[in-house]
Design brief:
The chain is an all-alpha fold. The chain has a domain of about 60 residues: Up-down Bundle (Methane Monooxygenase Hydroxylase, Chain G, domain 1). Helix 2 packs antiparallel against helix 3. The protein is flat. About 0% of the residues are buried. It is a multi-pass membrane protein. It catalyses: a quinone + NADH + 5 H(+)(in) = a quinol + NAD(+) + 4 H(+)(out). One of its GO terms (cellular component) is NADH dehydrogenase complex.
């Protein structure tokens, strides 16, 4: 029984050895010439301005969570669409209920002003 899992174990061991070997090999042969320019922070092609400890509005996080929530809705619709004919009327009613619940949540968030970017 455990023999069926042996190829998976071998693959995991090879993957871990490859990752560890790559890190060790690059640290051994990599150039080590640090300079002020190389150690300077760099992001998105622009020089950073201000502190890295700047506080962000909670709106950024709220919008991100709502985006993830409604993305997950789309992820649940794909398997439903594939099995639509086999699920029949029960599947249609359940997906309709799912969409209604999400729509009520969307209206609630909209009325609370969480989607306003000001």
């Amino acid at each position: 029984m455990l023999g069926a899992y042996l190829p998976i174990l071998v693959l995991v061991v090879i993957a871990c050895l490859f990752g560890l070997g790559s890190v060790i090999f690059s640290s051994l042969i990599g150039q080590k010439k640090p300079s002020q320019v190389k150690l300077a922070p760099y992001e998105c092609g622009c020089e950073p301005v201000g502190s890295a400890r700047e506080r962000f509005s909670i709106k950024f996080y709220l919008i991100a969570m709502l985006f993830i929530l409604f993305d997950i809705e789309a992820v649940f619709m794909y398997p439903w669409a594939v099995l639509f004919k086999r699920l029949g009327m029960f599947g249609l009613v359940e997906m309709g209920l799912f969409i209604v619940i999400l729509f009520v949540g969307y209206i609630y968030v909209w009325k609370k002003g969480a989607l306003e970017w000001e």
